[in-house]
Specification:
single chain, mainly alpha, 1 helix, elongated, ATP synthase complex subunit 8, CF(0), hydrogen ion transport, proton transmembrane transporter activity
Length: about 55
């Protein structure tokens, strides 16, 4: 059964992960974001109690 033979598939998987982690990932992480994060001012709202008509 050729599906159970890990010899060619393990090498393909290893080669693909190494190429991703060494070549593609640093190129993707070097891009700058279009929207830079900034500090938002936190606003607190006062909760008003609800008046239930049946109480």
């Amino acid at each position: 059964m050729p599906q159970l033979n890990p010899n060619p598939w393990f090498f393909i998987m290893l080669l693909s992960w190494l190429s991703f982690s060494l070549l593609i990932q640093p190129k993707l992480l070097s891009f700058t974001h279009t929207n830079q994060p900034f500090n938002k001012t936190i606003t607190t709202t006062k909760a008003t109690p609800w008046t239930w008509p049946w109480t």
